[in-house]
Batch of 2 targets.
Target 1
Amino acid sequence: MTRTPNPDRRQQLVAIDGPVASGKTAVGRALAQRLGWKLFDTGIMYRAATWQALRKGVHLDEEDSVADLIRESKFQLSPQPGTDSVEMDVFVDGDDATPHLRRPEVESGVPTVAAIAGVRVLMVQIQQEQAAQGCMIVVGRDIGTVVLPDAPVKMFLDASEEVRARRRAAEQNGGADEASVLRATRRRDARDRGREASPLTVAADAIRLDTSELTLEEAIDAAETIVRERIPETAEEEATRTTQSR
Ligand code: CDP
């Protein structure tokens, strides 16, 4: 049976926002795999912008200089190599920024760069162009509110501070000290929520999913149900797959 192509792929977009380590990237990645879509984690762009400013020696507190640098820099997103990957790599002026995005100096500098309105305008424009391809899970802080206000599905993932810090500590190689991760998590969250330019807030029409008590698998299942209920094409695909596998 041939699948009827969706007349408007642009309508096939899911916006996922949430604080540090709320599960949005892990859930977004798995959702993209299940739906055969791409994952666009917009955090990589703010991290790449931070890396660019650091390597060019621009002081992160000099807002105008950072915004000027980012305006002059060329950001490119390209599908990650590997047939199974749903993720994207980010290049700045032709250099792959991906291996540098989790460096401690990027981790601590990114909320400063992400709070610069002149940087956000440029990033949002690239993100909207990228998302126009459709069939994409777009993850970030302002996706449902600013980047894709018309997305057919918006989710806001959350979890208690302690759970989020525990997850982030476990992710770090060899395990990190939970108390210091909790402090760092709180600091970044406070800056993301408190900034003037596009603070982290829940879109009025977003579905909230608290993952504190859920395993990753349960969170993914819950998110998948939400998407399939709201984007009819994905429900039809699922029905076709189930029928075919019988
Ligand atoms: O994975 P994690 O939640 O730790 O961070 P991330 O999604 O990679 O985002 C890193 C930082 O970029 C956030 O703390 C925000 O300051 C900023 N960001 C943003 O302002 N807007 C977005 N759409 C995505 C990220």
Target 2
Amino acid sequence: MTLKGKKILLGLTGGIAAYKAAELCRLLVKAGAEVRIAMTQAATRFVTPLTMQALSGQPVWSDLWDERVPDAMGHIELSRDRELIVVAPASADFLARLAAGRASDLLSALCLARRCPLLVAPAMNVEMWENAATQRNVAALRADAVRIAGPAAGDQACGETGMGRMIEAAEILREIEVLLGPKALAGKRVLVTAGPTQEPIDPVRVLTNLSSGKMGYAVARAAEEAGADVTLVSGPVSLATPPGVARLDVSTAQEMFDAVKARARGCDVFVSVAAVSDYRVRNRAARKIKKRNGEGLTLELEENPDILAWVARMPKPPFCVGFAAESEKLAQHAREKRAMKKLPLLAANLAQEALGSEENSITLFDDRGEHPLGRAPKIELARKLVAHLAGMLPAKKR
Ligand code: C5P
């Protein structure tokens, strides 16, 4: 019973994925949650209120003017005691109403009047999802700290294929369990670096690498979910900032170093996931380098500072976690790197498996030995890493 006694409002909007909300309701109740249901009028066309009432064991709400709530304050009352609102499925129109702060129906009024976190699981046709208006609304919701779960890509009810399918009920349940679960890093300040760096060759060219930033962003998200105050120093990537995370964009290794140096002192944990360029161009050109037919071009490289090693050698360092992407002999290189950089914890993966992929397979190395986390989506591995490092932090002084 992972959600024992948790008070959740499950909102349904109009979409064929509403049938998955019936399953979600069943899973929530099975996990011990107390589930109140609110449906838009359109949602009642896809699943009946009777179905949702039977599954939740409670009356279903769908009318802003419902006289069952005393004082006609249903739009406030029904969300006041909730610990979380989950809207699944969330249609394109509902996301638009939410982003605009509308309160024209019961469910959007409840969302507007809430005091608790809000999680939405979008579900719509691929064209509707990719439409600039929807993307604008989703970005606005993210900026407002609304949590967006999915959507996934795949076959759609309309016969098309692409992004827009609602994620499965079990996956939404997992997101809810994480949101409402114990906060292993409550009160901790966590600094994370992510993504590649870019080292200029001339004003238009750079030396960089293929890091997507996905693993570092997943670590930042998992740390925030665990209750930490998270700052993410990010190289150039095209990823959305995880909700509740403060992000600082940098481009060169030196900029990343400066940003980390300015923030490392007040931190409890430093997780260095960035693929920092080991070298930068010494003879960087002030003007665009012209092609000299037949002649080669020599770039002279000089070493960049090792950001992680610097932090780990601070007089009172935060708890430092390094990442190592190796192409072979994973365990051997990981152990050497952990010792050399003086790290309590190192996460190692094979570079060829991790780069750009949604999944990864990680092994942790600490004083107690090796801990394989297996192969899984990066966010799941990040959650395991966060749980592991939280268990290694010194106990709070009383
Ligand atoms: O030595 P290597 O680059 O493989 O070590 C990887 C770890 O060191 C990663 O955690 C990476 O973020 C960090 N690193 C760093 N500064 C560098 C190079 C690597 O912080 N200049």
